[in-house]
Amino acid sequence: MKNESIAIPARDGFPLAATCYQPDDNPTHTAIIVNSATAVPQRFYRSLATFLVNQKFMVVTYDYRGIGGSRPASLRGFNARASDWTMLDMAGVMDWVQSTHHPRRCFHIGHSYGGQTVGILPNGDQIDALVTLSAQSGYWRLQGGLQKLIVGLHVHLTLPVLSHLFGFMPWSWIGSAEDLPQRVALDWSKWCRQPGYLLDDDALPTERYRMFQAPVLAYSFDDDDWGTRRAVDAMMGVYPNLTRKHLRPADAGLRSIGHFGYFRPGAERLWQEAIDWLEMVSPPVFSKDSRRSRMRDNGLQAANRRLAGCDHLN
C-alpha cells in the first residue's frame, strides 16, 4: 500500500490538496472517491480510506478549496462559492482520476454535502455507484431535538453576521469545524433557510438529478439530529435509483453514530456492508454497456434483498 500526497487541479485550475491511496494490487481496476462534508478536512476520512485500500481499491480523498490543505494563506477576500466545491472541485477530482488512472469502475462515498450534490456533477455519468452518509437537506426545520434551534440560530444569525464582519466564517472560533470562505458560508446558510434547501437554488443545475442513473445507497442514523431521517429523505429523494437505509446504532453494534461516527474506527462492519453493496450493484464486468446495465440491475435487486434481509430498508 502506498499513500501519496498530491495536488489535483480543479476544473478552473485551482490546486486541491489530495491523497491517493494505492493498493499493492487492484485486480478490478476500481477507484473510490471520498467527498467530504462541509468544513471537514480530508484527514477525517483516513481510517475509512485505509480500510478500503486494504480491500484492494484505489482511494482518493481531497480538500475542497478553502478547507484543510486547500486553504489559502488568508480566507479574507478568497473567492469561492458553495457550488464550486461540486462543479469545479469534485468534478476536477473526477477528471483527474479518469484521465490519470483510467478505472474500470468509479464509486463515490459522500458524507453530508459530499453526497447531496453528486447528482448535479457535469461528469456524473462516469460514476458507477454512490454511497451517502447523512446526506440530508440542511433546512433548519427538518433537524431534530435541540439541533433545530441551534441550526436555526446559526443560519439566520451566526453565519451571515460573522461572515460579513470578518470576511470569512471563523467556525474554528466557536466549534471544531474548519473556517469557511465567506461566500461558501453565505450560500450554505441561505440554502439552510429555504424549505427545499439547495433544490430551491435556481442557479444550480438541479435538473441533472433526474438524469443521474447510478445506484445510490443513502444511510441515515437514528441518533443523528443534524441528518434526521426526514431530512435525508427530503434530500436524497431526488435521486431516481435510490435505496434508503435507516439504522439505529445498536443495529451495527455501536453505542452511537450521529453525524460523524460512521467514519471513526469501530464502524468497520458498516464499511464492509457498503463495499458488499457496491460490488453487487456494479460488478466488475468489462464488456458492452448494455450487458453491464443488465447485470447492474440484477445486482441492485440482489443487493437490496440482502440489505432488507438483515436490517431496515426504506
Structural description of this entry:
The strands form 2 sheets. An 8-stranded mixed beta sheet has the order 1-2-4-3-5-6-9-10, sandwiched between helices. A two-stranded antiparallel ribbon has the order 7-8. The chain is globular, with a radius of gyration of 19 Å. β5, α3 and β6 form a beta-alpha-beta unit. It has helices spanning 46-54, 84-101, 113-116, 147-166, 182-193, 229-236, 268-281, 289-310, and strands at 2-9, 15-22, 30-35, 58-62, 105-111, 129-133, 168-169, 180-181, 216-221, 242-247. α7 runs antiparallel to α8 (289-310). The protein starts with a strand and ends with a helix. The protein has 314 residues and is of the alpha/beta class. The model is unreliable at 309-314 (pLDDT under 50). It has 8 helices and 10 strands. It has a single domain, classed as Alpha/Beta hydrolase fold, catalytic domain (Rossmann fold).
Topology of helices and strands:
Blueprint: E1 2-9, E2 15-22, E3 30-35, H1 46-54, E4 58-62, H2 84-101, E5 105-111, H3 113-116, E6 129-133, H4 147-166, E7 168-169, E8 180-181, H5 182-193, E9 216-221, H6 229-236, E10 242-247, H7 268-281, H8 289-310
Helix pairs in contact: 4-5, 7-8
